[in-house]
Amino acid sequence: MAGFDKVVNSYAEAMAGLEDNMTVIAGGFGLCGIPEGLIAQIKTMQTKGLTIVSNNCGVDGFGLGILLEDKQIKKMVSSYVGENALFEQQLLNGELEVELTPQGTLAEKMRAGGAGIPAFYTATGYGTPVGDGKESREFNGRPYILEESITGDFAIIKAYKADRYGNCIYRHTAQNFNPMAATAGRITVVEVEHIVEPGELEPSQIHTPGIYVDRVIQGSFEKRIERKVVAK
Hints:
By secondary structure, this protein is an alpha/beta fold.
């Protein structure tokens, strides 16, 4: 990796610098658009005490769920849980701290963090346990609560295509949380299906500009289906 060229050739290089007790923001929704290889590298590194910020924690045996197997995650900031028996077990045993956050609020926490906005007001969660202990204020007669933004030591992202400068395009619903998460990491690592040369991507189609991206690695993906339902 030299100059504007952000491509790295190994997962070890992609995740170099990740240490115990860091915060990692992960793109994905369920198993859609998750950086499978980067998650596997975190498991290989056996990094402990991590705070993971992601919509959910994968499933048992796949996605972020594999980081639960060796208790690498200390805290999970999510908007949805329920697909992992191991997650439930560790939560009930007091081995895993969980901060549930409304889905839109979680997305805005990432976006605001990436934009340098320390906090914002939202009506979502007012009058519920989500708002307990948080500052509240009325605007135009409607109550709002103050939510702090989120940034991470690392952001791990899955994109469809990227050029060597780190400009990224996502594909269909695999876009999900990835664009917001990409802006909120001190070091942002993008795992992609295809790497192209600068100039090959149509500028108007780029979702994440390369200025947010530090490292790009080409991966291969299983793209497992979270729950398959077929018509009778």
